[in-house]
């Protein structure tokens, strides 16, 4: 079975649109989990969800514009609809990137990919010592090459991770060029995911 995370920020995005957008999205999620991808035609989606074809088309356009799904046209047959999370996970698999599942449950998928890769990288190779700390000397283009995320997405993920205290960034000289240096703030990551988040989950269960 394919593991497809349903992030709270995704559901928040859907809440500002008509209920049809949410229903079409959840339908694609269910079909993707069962079959690996969604190839339902628009009329078939409309029939299954008991809504109009126009509503399905509008919902699909909204989901594509919001970056929540992608559509691959196929000549002579129905389009393929893929969840963006699924596409990112597939890219990670192709690059042998291990993504920590706890990260994916509480943050943007691209953030989880960057943070997971950073922790694995930090544990084994390519670090440089600056101001008494070990850093990963990689620019945004390097993160794109290593993770499969585009440069814009990588830049925004690194910005969010820093704002949340999970990583630190600096610009240092590397091979004679000013280069982005990053490092995971491991104490903060451990505190959030293995202490604070566990406590919150336990309290909710009670």
What spatial form do the alpha-carbon principal axes imply? elongated
Rg to the nearest angstrom?
A: 20 Å
Question: What is the number of helices?
Answer: 10
Cα separation of the termini: 30 Å
Tally of strands: 6
Strand content: 15-25%
Mean pLDDT level? 79
Helix content: 55-70%
User: Which class do the helix and strand fractions yield?
Assistant: alpha+beta
Instruction: Please list the strands of the largest sheet in the order they lie side by side.
Output: 3-4-6-5
Q: Which stretches are poorly predicted, pLDDT < 50 over at least 5 residues?
A: 1-9, 197-206
What do these coordinates show?
- With about 210 residues, the protein is of the alpha+beta class.
- It is built from 10 helices and 6 strands, in the order ααααββαααββααββα.
- The strands form 2 sheets. The chain has a 4-stranded antiparallel sheet, covered by helices on one side. Strands 1-2 form a two-stranded antiparallel ribbon.
- Helix 8 packs across helix 9.
- It is elongated.
- Residues about 1-10 and about 195-205 have low confidence and may be disordered.
């Amino acid at each position: 079975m394919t593991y497809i995370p349903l992030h709270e920020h995704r559901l928040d995005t859907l809440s500002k649109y008509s209920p049809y957008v949410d229903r079409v999205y959840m339908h694609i999620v269910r079909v993707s989990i069962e079959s690996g991808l969604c190839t339902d035609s628009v009329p078939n989606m409309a029939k299954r969800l008991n809504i109009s074809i126009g509503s399905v088309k509008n919902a699909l356009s909204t989901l594509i514009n919001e970056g929540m799904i992608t559509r691959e046209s196929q000549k002579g047959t129905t389009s393929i609809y893929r969840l963006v999370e699924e596409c990112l996970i597939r890219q990670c698999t192709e690059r042998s990137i291990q993504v920590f599942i706890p990260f994916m449950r509480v943050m943007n998928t691209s953030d989880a990919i960057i943070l997971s890769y950073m922790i694995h990288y930090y544990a084994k190779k390519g670090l440089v010592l600056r101001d008494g700390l070990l850093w990963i000397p990689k620019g945004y283009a390097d993160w794109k090459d290593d993770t499969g995320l585009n440069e814009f997405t990588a830049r925004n993920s690194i910005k969010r991770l820093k704002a949340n205290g999970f990583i630190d960034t600096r610009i240092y000289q590397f091979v004679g060029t000013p280069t982005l240096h990053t490092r995971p703030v491991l104490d903060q990551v451990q505190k959030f995911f293995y202490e604070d988040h566990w406590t919150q989950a336990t309290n909710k269960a009670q």
